[in-house]
Design brief:
With 171 residues, the chain is an alpha/beta fold. The chain has helices at 27-36, 47-58, 71-80, 99-108, 122-130, 145-151, and strands at residues 5-8, 15-16, 43-44, 63-66, 88-90, 115-119, 135-138, 155-157. A 6-stranded parallel sheet has the order 5-4-1-6-7-8, sandwiched between helices. The longest helix is centred in the N-terminal third of the chain and has 12 residues, at 47-58.
């Protein structure tokens, strides 16, 4: 599989935002989160995820974040946790609707078979299947491992297995 682009899910995959759910039911609550994010509880699942994002960004690799939450919300949380913020973000995706994934493919100029979608929810995997895009499921977020296995991603990732190391030989 020659992945030319990676799509990351955001909430519950990159950052634990579960404490923000009560605010996400309407626009006023979402605006409150964006304006007050520094005072609200969120946490990184693993420093390795940030390091992967930074490494991809520093090497000029193509990747995007596709989230059902609004773009300004994603950017505010990325900034709070000191992730790179010059990232292509496709917010308000309405997954499992495939339109946002199709938008990424068109804008980034890649075919679905050359993209890897990473997510933590069954809807992330099903969205990928719908357009024949390879997927990987992180079992630390929204959906339980058993449900993710039933969705049949190409790969299941356990957080404890993610680590960063320098390559022993350059490619």
């Amino acid at each position: 599989m020659n992945n030319q682009h990676i799509i990351f899910d955001f909430d519950e995959f990159m950052i634990d935002t579960s404490k923000l759910l009560p605010y996400m039911t309407n626009q006023k609550g979402r605006d409150f989160v964006v304006e007050n994010i520094k005072n609200l509880k969120t946490k990184e699942y693993s420093p390795a995820i940030k390091e992967i994002i930074k490494s991809l960004n520093n090497k000029g690799k193509k990747f995007s974040i596709v989230s059902n939450t609004p773009e300004n919300y994603v950017r505010a949380i990325l900034e709070k946790h000191e992730f790179p913020t010059d990232i292509s973000i496709y917010g308000s995706a309405k997954k499992p609707d495939t339109e946002c994934f199709k938008k990424v493919l068109k804008k980034e100029g890649v075919e679905a078979k050359n993209v890897l979608s990473l997510g933590d929810a069954v809807r992330d995997i099903l969205t990928s299947h719908e357009i024949k895009m390879p997927s990987a499921a992180g079992i630390w977020g929204y959906s339980k491992k058993e449900a993710l296995e039933l969705a049949e991603p190409q790969v299941i990732i356990e957080l404890s297995l993610i680590h960063i190391s320098e390559p022993t030989r350059p490619y």
